Amino acid sequence: MLDDPHTTSNPEPQLRGSNQSGMRAWNERLVLSILRRQGPMSKADIARVTGLSTQTAWVIIRALEKDGLLEKGKPQRGRVGQPSVPMSLSPDGALFLGLKIGRRSSELVLMDFVGTIRARRTLIYRWPTPGSVLEFAHGAIDAVLAEVAPALRARIAGLGVAMPFQLWQWSARIGAPPADLAGWETLDIRAELARAYPFPVFLQNDASSACGAELVFGHAVPAGDFLYFYVGYFIGGGVVLDGQLYTGRTGNAGAVGSMPVRGDGGATVQLIERASISGLEEMLEAAGHPAASLWETPSAWTIDAAILDRWIEAAGQGIADAALAAVALVDFDAVIIDGSMPADVRARLVEIAEARMRGHNLSGIAEPAFGEGSLGPQARTLGAAAIPLSERFLVDRSGLAMAG
Predict the structure, then answer these.
(1) Which letter does DSSP use for residue 106 in this model?
(2) Which of 102, 118, 203, 224 could cross-link 5 (Cys pair, CB 3.0–4.6 Å)?
(3) What does DSSP say about strands 95-101 and 156-163: parallel, antiparallel, or unpaired?
(4) Domains of the chain and any CATH numbers
């Protein structure tokens, strides 16, 4: 069975200040988180924003600089006194591998400490067999590691794996022979990869990982609680409470695809049937239109406009139904929608979902704000790489709010 999304006991990379579970001291993580969120800052500003004493802040900054996690910028002269020297994250401070396993493709990336993707490998398939995915993962990781300078290999701080849980149960929906996916039930992919490499390996649901990537890299992340929808081959979601990704008892919180919504003719169906890109693919193929661009060029679809319009309307209505049910249980401040789709399609989907939400009877419910995610097709892969980044170097947004 799939294991819990925890780190392994493999030897740690040569990074100062990590304890047995790979966690840095909270104040160090706070400084790194603030610089990631707000950009370069002087030592005095870091002390002010964190609420740390000047001496404590300077000791932490010197230690992080010694570790290679921070670097000095060019001195900036003010009107009086000595020039101010901004501190910023060092791109080479730590490197992270991210493996996204999807129902149509797998992707591996190498990400640096500021979030830049330095290498990428992709495999497209009809469905993900365990053997083909493991072969791709090992080959891609080995190829990427071979391109990393020897001095930097010790700074690889972990591998995050983002994938749908219980993949073996999805054979009928993706048209795969059950025998092709059956191996996922007994494969512990995290342990399998951990045995092969000298860094921690983490596992997380792919939609939760996309939500986590929005928290770390998003351009306009809501300040409070929000519900996140990610529209991929199948729609999935994430839950953010008190500024922190909430994955639940089994790691599968935010499984919005299973929520009941209205279907054609008033029948009740699961959201996965109304708001998944697989449904758009079926509509296109049924009409004799090509659907390859949905997967080959997710940022620029070339598909029939009338069919796309019908899918956006159905998907938007379904998301509105699911969002209403969720908001009735948890008083979410916002609903964020992202997906493996062009930006203009995402914008239209958000517009329709918000409009259909307003069409419901909202008595007794505080209507949430609707917004777009900012990472699109790369959200799940970035989210995979962000798992070790978050686990080892960052504090959650509630910690940043306390510091502010």
Answers:
(1) E
(2) 203
(3) parallel
(4) 26-92 (1.10.10.10), 95-206+382-393 (3.30.420.40), 219-374 (3.30.420.40)
